[in-house]
Amino acid sequence: MLISKVSDQIKKSKYISRDLSWLRFNYRVLDQARDANKSLFDRLKFLAITSSNLDEFFMIRVGSLYNYLDYGKERTDYSGLRELPFRKKLLDYAHRFVNDQYLTFNNELKPLFPKSGFDILKVNELTEIEQKKVDSYFKNTIYPMLTPMVFDNYHGFPLLMNQLLTFGVVTRTTDEGKPQDRVTFVQIPQNLARFYEINRKDKIIFVPIEEIVRWKIKKLFRNVDIVSVNLFRITRNGDFTLEESDDLEADFVQEIKSKLKTRKKGRVVRLEVERNPSQFMMKILKERWTIDNANVFTINSMLDLRGLWQIVNHRHYKNKCFKQPASVLPLSLPSDGVDMFEYLKEHDVLLHHPYNSMEPVVNLLERAAEDPSVLGIKQTIYRLADQSRVTAALLKAAENGKHVSVLFEVKARFDEERNLREGERLEKAGCFVIYGISKYKTHTKMMMIIRKEGEKVTRYVHIGSGNYNEATARLYTDVSLLTTNEIYAHDVSEFFNVITGHSRPNEYKYLMTSPKNMRSQLIDLIRIEARNAKKGLKSGIVIKINSLEDREVIDELYKASKAGVTIKLIVRGICCLRPGREDLSENISVKSIVGEYLEHARLYYFHNNGDPKVYGGSADMMVRSFDRRIEALFLIANAELKREAITILYYNLLDNQNSYIMREDGTYIKRRAGANEEVIDIHKLFYNKAYVVEDVELV
């Protein structure tokens, strides 16, 4: 009865739960691991991605929920559920996902291992000679790094680290004639390879490190009776970027922050454990971490599927994974041999990654670092590649006496240490470095090169949706613009003055920015379409983003739909809008594209009665993007580049190989090409340079 009541409440809400929507997105990623048309190694890659995704989900989203639960604050989810019933619904759904994740691994992928040239085996499945090699590896490498930590009346509970494989070993001694059980924890260091590799003639054997430790666990417990050996893994609350937590009151943020200072590590929100664990140990862990069965995930296989990356990235299997085609030139760039400083004086260039390489941007920056005519470089940085050429170019520019100012976002989740380290390197070289802007996260991506050319100074601007990361630029789809147009240059100069100094410009001509006015400007554009529809004029909206969660924008889209505006949304991940509901969103359709590349581009199209306005940039339609981040969207003013952007949207809408259609209840179905329908796979099509369609109609 209670389950039925909860389901009815969710169905009645005109919004979809952000967290339940995210779990459905991870199902779409899992779908890639189930795709028999992909190579086994690509399927393992996507399975490992679902595991990484789920780790972050528990650390951040479930962690955020526990910020409310632990501190007694009320929270009503978009689904209409309060904290406790929502926790149950969310964790029930997470259990279902993990079950499907391991069904895929155990039933669909593991049987393919032997025929694919490898296998994952336990130590007792090895030959005697192989076991001797493993024994030597344990003695020389693993054993010296293991530290047993007992918990009993004389030893406090040890600090167990987040997401490390841990053995809970229950031992029994007899004290004064009475049996005494206690538990000792052995954590496997994270800097050891997940698998020990053995080369056989016909295949490679991967032996999980935890199975080696289990095999030799008695070496750590001499002359002690071992009752049980239990492998587990914990996930702790990692939601410490409280400024980005949705709908938190400012005083509550400060309250939690003050309490977090007293915590060494976040509270445990998930416990993964292998089958049939010791009930003695489980009772201790549950009581210690204030968790119950809903937080406990029993795993019938290898814990932590992220370890599969060692197999996917193995040198022997590189040629068995998806091979990325060679990049093509941007449509707006005639050849790769042009002088970009000269070319950009007369032409704007739209880049569509990864189909277009990031080289024009990096090369321009590297050349600017050496060019004696370049006076200065300004840049925002959110995420960087390892051995970053971007950092190297900025260092070289500073060494050559140029003014270099860089805004490093130190709150870029999981890249905080890297950004601090790189920022310090630049500071030492003489760059002007700013580490973020107070309570806002700087998520916008822009760069400006200031160059003296005769009697005038030209500003070369790059602005886009993607990070200055050469590695992810090959894996993420993004759009960006290179230009010397004075309007962009003026707007970007003003924007840099805002984020590095103390300036409040009245308005920008080609930029929309947050936290100032992006939401209101987008709402104004939506309302224009609604007014045009009411007047009987042509109208329409097409938006491609990562996430749609902002309630104010969703409500305006609902109003526009009722006014007769055709609205087509391409939302990769979270979508809190409910499409196709009678008398609410009948004119709204939503699709998600999940495939070989991570869809990361943001494009906004408004019909504007035949004179379309098209924007690209870094911002999604989320509360955090509008209120808690420094973001920018840029108008694509050039007619040819606008046509390119519209064509990108056109084919995104037509794609029938990587697309999922969202239904009114929040579920998704795979879009399949019909019997007489042309197959359109955008992850292949955009490598064809001649893809632009003239006079395309989106709505």
TrEMBL record:
Biological processes per GO annotation: polyphosphate biosynthetic process
Cofactor: Mg(2+)
InterPro entries on file: PP_kinase, PP_kinase_C_1, PP_kinase_middle, PP_kinase_middle_dom_sf, PPK_C_dom2, PPK_N_dom, PPK_N_dom_sf
GO molecular-function terms, A-Z: ATP binding; metal ion binding; polyphosphate kinase activity
Catalytic activity annotation: [phosphate](n) + ATP = [phosphate](n+1) + ADP
Matching Gene3D superfamilies: Endonuclease Chain A, Polyphosphate kinase middle domain, Polyphosphate kinase N-terminal domain
Cellular component per GO, a single term: polyphosphate kinase complex
List of residues binding ATP: N53, Y476, R572, H600
EC nos: 2.7.4.1
Post-translational events: An intermediate of this reaction is the autophosphorylated ppk in which a phosphate is covalently linked to a histidine residue through a N-P bond.
Name of a matching Pfam family: PP_kinase
Residues binding Mg(2+), per UniProt: R383, R413
Domain of life from the UniProt record: Bacteria
Entry keyword set: ATP-binding, Kinase, Magnesium, Metal-binding, Nucleotide-binding, Phosphoprotein, Transferase
Domain Polyphosphate kinase N-terminal: 15-120
Active site: H443
Domain Polyphosphate kinase middle stretches: 130-311
Transmembrane segment boundaries: none
Polyphosphate kinase C-terminal domain sequence ranges: 339-504, 511-677
HAMAP family per UniProt: Polyphosphate_kinase (MF_00347)
Family: Belongs to the polyphosphate kinase 1 (PPK1) family.
The protein's role, per its UniProt record: Catalyzes the reversible transfer of the terminal phosphate of ATP to form a long-chain polyphosphate (polyP).
Name of the protein this chain belongs to: Polyphosphate kinase
